[in-house]
Amino acid sequence: MDALAIMVLAFAGYIIMYQLYGRYISRQTIAQDKVRAKLGAMIQIYGHRRDRFKSDAAQISLVLNNDQLSLAEALRIKNKLNDIGTNI
What we know:
Elements: H1 2-31, H2 34-54, H3 68-83
């Protein structure tokens, strides 16, 4: 009977610690993560760049040479920019 009581208490303690770790300790670890902080900074930087490209004040001009490869590359770039909503 004593062994059963010890097993039940150990299991209950395990469940309680698992819940505490999931709610409190893991959040602190994620909040202090250096990679997460760097990714957050990159998202802000690239978000500003996206806004600049999508603004009406931004103007993109394609320059190409008089050959077939340059023309094909310019058309590919134009199509990709149109796909993301940037006007040329």
